[in-house]
Design goal:
This protein is of the alpha/beta class. The protein is built from 10 helices and 12 strands. The structure holds adenosine-5'-triphosphate and magnesium ion (MG).
Length: 319
C-alpha cells in the first residue's frame, strides 16, 4: 500500500443506489458501501457482472445520484455540492469507460473532439492545442491521429486518446471502469502498463474496476471485492490473493485460470447467482456459500477490519 492513514483523497460512507423497476421491484445495485482511498493508490474493485461496480464508479462523481450515503473528495462533500460546485469538482474526478468507440463522436475528427473537451475545461484555444500535443507525447502517439475519425484508428489507440481526454484538466483522481475489457487481448497488457506508468509519472490516484481478479492483483495496491452491491472484502492486493478471508473471494480466485499452475483444482460456486431483485435476508452470499451457518440467514454481516488493514464482511471468515 502506498498511501498513508490521514492522507485520504476519497471517502465513501454508506453509499447506496437502488434502481426502481416498477412499483414493487427495485434493484439494490449498491448497498451501504463504505471505504477510503489514500492519495497515490491504485485501488481495484472486482466482482462478477452485475455486482454494482459501474454504478459505484458513477456514483462517486455523481454522474448518477445516490439513493443514500455520502462521498467526500479531499474532505469536501461531493454529495452535498451545489450544481455549480459540482461542475468544478467533476473535472478532478475523471472517468475512463470500457468502450472508447462509444465515448467519441463518430462524425468528429479526434482533434476536434479533444479540442472541444479542452475548451469545455476552460483552456484558451492555443493552450488547448499545446496541452493535447503534450499529452500525446506523454503516451507516445503521433499527432497524425488528430486528423482522423474514431473508426480510422484501432481500439487500443482510441482508448489511449480517451485517456488523453481524461487527463486534459490535470485530474489528481481517475476512475477507470474496465478500461481494457473491450480491447483486443494483444493490446490489453500494453494499455494497463500505460495506465500504471501514467499513474506513477503524474502522481495520480486511480480506481480500477475489473472483473478479472488476476489483473487486479498485478496492478493494484489494494483491492475491494464486491458481491451483489456490497463490498465483502478489502485488502492489499497480494494479501487478498494469498490469504482471502471471504468464501466468495476464494471462489473468485480459484475460478480464475492460473497460468503458472496450469489450472489447478477449481472451487466452483454452488447454487445459482440470485436475481438482483431477490431481497435475501442475512448475507446475500449465503445461498451459494459453503460455510453458511445459522447466523448467515439472519443478519447481514458488516465489513469489519481485522486490525491489519484487511477487512471482511462475513460471519465465518476463512481461517
Ligand atoms: N440505469 C439502470 N437502471 C436500472 N437498473 C440498472 C441501471 N444501471 C445498473 N442497473 C442494475 O444494477 C445492477 C448493477 O449494475 P452495474 O452495471 O453497476 O454492474 P457491473 O458490476 O458494472 O456489471 P458489469 O461487470 O457487467 O459491467 C445490475 O443488476 C444492473 O442491471
Ligand atoms: Mg460495469
Amino acid at each position: 500500500m502506498t498511501g498513508r492513514e490521514g492522507d485520504v483523497i476519497l471517502e465513501v460512507k454508506s453509499l447506496s443506489k437502488s434502481f426502481r423497476r416498477n412499483s414493487r421491484q427495485a434493484v439494490r445495485a449498491v448497498e451501504n458501501v463504505s471505504f477510503s482511498i489514500y492519495r497515490g493508490e491504485f485501488f481495484g474493485i472486482v466482482g462478477e457482472s452485475g455486482c454494482g461496480k459501474s454504478t459505484l464508479g458513477r456514483l462517486i462523481p455523481r454522474l448518477i445520484e445516490p439513493s443514500g450515503g455520502q462521498v467526500f473528495f479531499n474532505g469536501e462533500e461531493v454529495t452535498a455540492a451545489s450544481r455549480k460546485r459540482l461542475s468544478r469538482l467533476r473535472p478532478l474526478m475523471q472517468m475512463i469507460f470500457q468502450n472508447p468507440f462509444a465515448s467519441f463522436d463518430p462524425k468528429m475528427t479526434l482533434g476536434s473532439s479533444l479540442r472541444e473537451a479542452a475548451l469545455f475545461h476552460g483552456l484558451p484555444r492555443k493552450a488547448a492545442q499545446a496541452r493535447i500535443l503534450e499529452l500525446l507525447g506523454l503516451i507516445n502517439l503521433s499527432a497524425d491521429v488528430l486528423s482522423r475519425l474514431p473508426k480510422e484508428i484501432s481500439g487500443g489507440q482510441l482508448q489511449r486518446l480517451a485517456i488523453v481526454r481524461a487527463l486534459i484538466p490535470s485530474p489528481p483522481f481517475i476512475i477507470a471502469d474496465e478500461p481494457v475489457s473491450a480491447l483486443d487481448v494483444s493490446v490489453q497488457a500494453q494499455l494497463l502498463n500505460l495506465l500504471y506508468d501514467l499513474k506513477e509519472r503524474l502522481d495520480l490516484t486511480v480506481i480500477f474496476i475489473s472483473h478479472d481478479i488476476q489483473v487486479v492483483e498485478y496492478l493494484c495496491d489494494r483491492t475491494a471485492v464486491m458481491y451483489m452491491g456490497s463490498m465483502v472484502e478489502i485488502a492489499g492486493a497480494e494479501e487478498l490473493f494469498d490469504r482471502p478471508l471471504h468464501p466468495y473471494t476464494r471462489a473468485l480466485i480459484s475460478a480464475a485460470p492460473r497460468l503458472e499452475t496450469g489450472g489447478g483444482k477449481r472451487e466452483l460456486l454452488g447454487g445459482d447467482p440470485p436475481s438482483p431483485f431477490d431481497d435475501i435476508p442475512g448475507c446475500r452470499f449465503s445461498p451459494r456459500c459453503p460455510r453458511r451457518g445459522e447466523a448467515c440467514l439472519k443478519a447481514r454481516p458488516v465489513l469489519a477490519e481485522g486490525g491489519d488493514g484487511h477487512s471482511v464482511a462475513c460471519h465465518f471468515p476463512l481461517p
